[in-house]
Amino acid sequence: MASQLTFAVLGEFKVFRDGEPVALPPSKKTRALLAYLAVVQRPQRRERLCEMFWQIPDDPRGALRWSLSRIRQIVDADNLSCVRADRNFVTLDLARFDCDFRMIEGLNPRRIEKLDVERMEALAESFKGGFLEDLYLPGCPEFEAWRVAHADQAEMLRLRVLRSLVDGLRGDPQRALRHAYVLHALAPASGLATEIERLASHARQLAAAAPRDDLTPPPQAPDAPHSKEGRETIQHTVADQRRRQISVIATEIVTPFQDIEDQDPEVGSTIINPLVEAARREMDRYGGIVLSSTDTSIIGMFGALIAREDHTFQACSAALSMKAAVEKLGETHVHLSIGLDCGEAVLRAINNDQVEAQGAVVRRGSVSPPSGDRLHFAYERCARWLCNGCCNVRHRLCRWAASRKLL
Questions:
Q1: What confidence tens digit (pLDDT) does each residue in 243-301 have?
Q2: CB-side exposure of 174: number of CA atoms within 13 Å?
Q3: Domain 238-403 belongs to what topology?
C-alpha cells in the first residue's frame, strides 16, 4: 500500500507522510518551489521556474536541477516518483499527494453563508496561519507577488468563514466563542470585542444553569490574544520558535508633570498612569502585544500571534489612535513620541501569557524615539517590506503617511 503524502500550505509550509512530519531542506527557495508546484497543480515550464526563483546570470537551470533532486528525496517513496519532469516541463503527480489548499480552492467568499456549519468549521480548522507565511522571499518578486495574492484571497475567505460561524452559532455560544476569538485576532474591532463579551456572558450563564453531568470544558481558543480567555492559549498560537515579519512601536508619554513626579511620585503616578493605560488599551484594540512598559513608555509589536500582511498598517493605525486617546485625556499638556519599525523576528512563547521576540527589528524598535510631538516612521525598511506586500495595504499606508506628512 502506497504511503500518503500531504502538503500543508495554510500556515507554515509542512510536508507529512502518513501523518508524520517530513524534514524539509534548509534552502527556502527549494521549499518555495515545492510549495508552488503543490498549489498550482499543473505543468510549469523550466524557463518560468528559473525566472521566478533564480534571476542570476550563473546557471539557473543547474540550480533548478539541484532543487528538484532535493524535492525528490522528500516526495518520492515506495519506488514511485511524485515528480514528473522532462526537458521542458516540471510538475507533481496529482494522484500521489493531497494538499490542504484544495479545500478552499474555487470557493466563492460571497457564497460561504450557504455552506453548512460542519463544512465551515472544517474550513476554519484547516487554517493554521497565513498562506505560506514562512516563505517570504523578497529577492524573488514574481513568487512573492503570487504568494501575497493567494494569501490575501485565503485571508478574505477565512474571515468570511469565521464571521458566518459566529453569526450561525449564536444559539451555541461556546462554539461561537472559539471562532469569535480567532476573528478578533485577525481583524480587531471594538464592535466584535463587545460581541465577544456578550457571547462569553451567555456561555457562562448556560454553563451555570446546566446539570452537573452535562458540564463540558470550555473550548480552546488558539488564536485569542485580545481577551483574558484568549490570552490563556497564546502558546498554541505562537509555536516554540518561529520566524515572522512584525512591526514594533515604542511610545513615550511626555508631560510637564514629570518634575512633580520627581518631588511626589504618588501625585505624578495619579496623573500619568491613566495616560499609559489609555495607550495600552489602544494597542490591544488593534491587535498589538505589549513587550515591555514603564511608568511613561510602552513597547509593543504587531503581527506576532497571527501572520498578517498589513501588520505595519495596523501598527500605524494604533499609533494614531494612541496619540488621540492620550491627548484627549491630557488635553494640550501631553506630547506623545512614537517610533515605528518593521522586519523579521524570531518569536518564542515563554509562558501562558507572554511572547518573547528576538531580532534586529526588536532592538531598533525598542530604542526610545526622539522627544517631541511626532510619529517617527522608519520608512525605508517599512517601504522595502511593503513593496513585496499586498498592493492595497501599501497604497493605504502610503496615503495615510503622506496625509500626515510622515514621509
A1: 778 888 888 877 665 555 555 666 566 767 777 787 788 887 887 888 777 777 788 88
A2: 13
A3: Alpha-Beta Plaits (3.30.70)
